[in-house]
């Protein structure tokens, strides 16, 4: 197996660890395991340093790992600002803002979207009944063919969710690469 492929497999594993719900990462025993796994992977993949003498955040670490795996590359399922404006007019398209609650409280959700935090998207779309989903989000539960658009702050987390949903069999999933940052900037300067 090539080194790039091995890095991709490691990255997917790390994405699962890094994107654990906050309460799991902060539980004392799991926090130690989470930290140890990241430090060990860092030490193994960046010779000349040790995981214990270098400070890093899981977000910046994930970005570096995704770059090794080709994450973030443009593809046909990326959506730009103009395409998002059109999607917002179509009630058959479900736009999901995957940022955390604190981010939504600070800025508000992307107009026309529903808010489901990144770590809950797969569970909400696959395990809720149609009635429960409709009651909770005032939208119909999407099928695996429904056009879904994921958005976050800058397009990175939403691309992870997009990839996860593709693996779960959703066939029409898009990532708004500009995210809230681009949305806010374009709204200020039309």
List the helices and strands and how they pair.
Layout: H1 3-18, H2 22-26, H3 28-45, H4 58-69, E1 78-79, H5 81-88, E2 94-97, H6 101-107, E3 113-115, H7 121-127, H8 130-137, E4 148-151, H9 156-167, E5 173-176, H10 179-188
Parallel strand pairs: 1-5, 2-3, 2-4, 4-5
Helix pairs in contact: 1-4
Short description:
This protein is of the alpha/beta class and 190 residues long. It has 10 helices and 5 strands. The chain has a 5-stranded parallel sheet with strand order 1-5-4-2-3.
Describe the protein's architecture and organization.
α1 packs antiparallel against α4. With 190 residues, the protein is an alpha/beta fold. It has a 5-stranded parallel β-sheet. It is 54% helix and 9% strand.
The largest β sheet comes out as: 5 strands, parallel
The helix/strand series, from N terminus to C terminus, equals: HHHHEHEHEHHEHEH
Widest sheet: strand ordering: 1-5-4-2-3
The average pLDDT is 76
Would you tell me the structural class of the helices and strands?
A: alpha/beta
Shape: globular
Which consecutive residue ranges, at least 5 long each, have pLDDT under 50?
1-9, 48-73
Q: Please state roughly what percent of the residues sit in beta strands, choosing from under 5%, 5-15%, 15-25%, 25-35%, 35-45% or over 45%.
A: 5-15%
Radius of gyration computed on alpha carbons: 18 Å
Helix run count? 10
């Amino acid at each position: 197996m090539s080194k790039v492929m091995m890095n991709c497999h490691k990255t997917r594993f790390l994405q699962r660890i890094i994107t654990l719900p906050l309460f799991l990462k902060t539980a004392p025993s799991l926090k130690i395991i989470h930290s140890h796994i990241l430090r060990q992977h860092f030490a193994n993949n960046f010779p000349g340093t040790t995981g214990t003498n270098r400070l890093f955040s899981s977000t910046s670490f994930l970005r570096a790992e995704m770059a090794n795996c080709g994450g973030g590359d443009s593809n046909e399922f990326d959506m730009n600002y103009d395409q998002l404006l059109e999607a917002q007019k179509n009630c058959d398209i479900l736009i999901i803002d995957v940022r955390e609650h604190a981010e939504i409280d600070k800025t508000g959700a992307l107009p026309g979207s529903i808010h489901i935090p990144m770590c809950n998207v797969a569970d909400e779309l696959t395990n809720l009944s149609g009635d429960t989903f409709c009651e909770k989000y005032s939208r119909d539960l999407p099928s695996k063919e429904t056009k879904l658009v994921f958005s976050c702050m800058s397009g990175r987390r939403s691309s992870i969710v997009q990839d996860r949903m593709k693996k779960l069999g959703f066939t029409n999933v898009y990532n708004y690469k500009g995210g809230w940052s681009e949305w806010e900037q374009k709204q200020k300067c039309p």
